[in-house]
Task: structure prediction
Amino acid sequence: MDFEDIDISSLRTRFDELNSKVLNITDFNSPESKSIISEYNRLKETIETYEEILNIQKQIEQNEELKNDPELEGLVSAENESLQSKFEKLKQKLQLLLLPPNPNDEKNVILEIRAGTGGEEATLFAGDLFRMYNRYANSKGWTVQVLSISESDTGGIKEIIAKIIGKGVYKMLKGESGVHRVQRIPVTEANGRIHTSAASVVVMPEIDDIEIVIKPEDIRIDVFRSAGHGGQSVNTTDSAVRITHLPTGLIVTCQDTKDQHKNKESALSVLRARLYQMELEKQQGEISNIRKSAIKTGDRSDKIKTYNFPQNRLTDHRINKTWYDLENIMEGNLDEIINEYILSLSNSWYQETACGS
Result:
């Protein structure tokens, strides 16, 4: 996509149409209203980004005229370098905004992380992955709610299920589903040998009640006392909830709070997401393959990313790109990595569109 090829006039016309509709909305909770508002906000951001690009382009051109002055040449060159960097980032942002939106992009997500091959080291890595995503969510102003967690004896995580709430969560995290491989020296390794382990990550959009209907007769709800580390009871009341979906056999357990009602709501939220995911898998073979590899195998040979700690590098095997800043990445600084992957998909889409036109 070239910046000059954008038909901004048609976008402005559509934005004006949506603006009129937004002003006349009376029921902001209806599906139609939500769709109008979502498109309105996306187009508003698109046009504002386009205009910001034009302003930066104009500043760069004006600065170029000042380069003839020897006293200003160094200052102008430094400013243009900064402006050019911002210009390129905004072009990338605009390219993403112009992609056809996924109807699930603005939804909250259910994040599932499971330790795969590698024993205790795999559980420690699963815990590191969750902390990384948790820090990334915090940097975005998103809210993370842990719905279910199973810890290992070494303090790692065998399995964790969490809900992440915020704007555009699924859009940013949907590409994280798959097997994540780690290469490092475990804390328990006395001889300093590098081990390879893996953990699986699954990201699913949270589904509203109106999209997946769960009939009361199709579920069995069991309540029991929450169990802590080692199996001891941590509650004196039956607050933990286990929901079994009878038609599919899916079982969801939640014991995050001492409130049975809240645990039931959380478990139903996870169940809806899983049922919706099953429907998606029937229609989209690629999603089925991702979930099967991520959940059923967790095999380190079937990976989307490799985290090599001795070399301080992260490699995304899907786009063949490597970053040598792993320590910073594990602190939750994921924007560049995630945007690179999304941009690779957008480039493929634009190429296919151009070839098909």
Observations:
- DSSP finds nine helices and eleven strands in the chain.
- Confidence is low (pLDDT under 50) at residues 229-235.
- The CA atoms of residues 34 and 142 lie 20 Å apart.
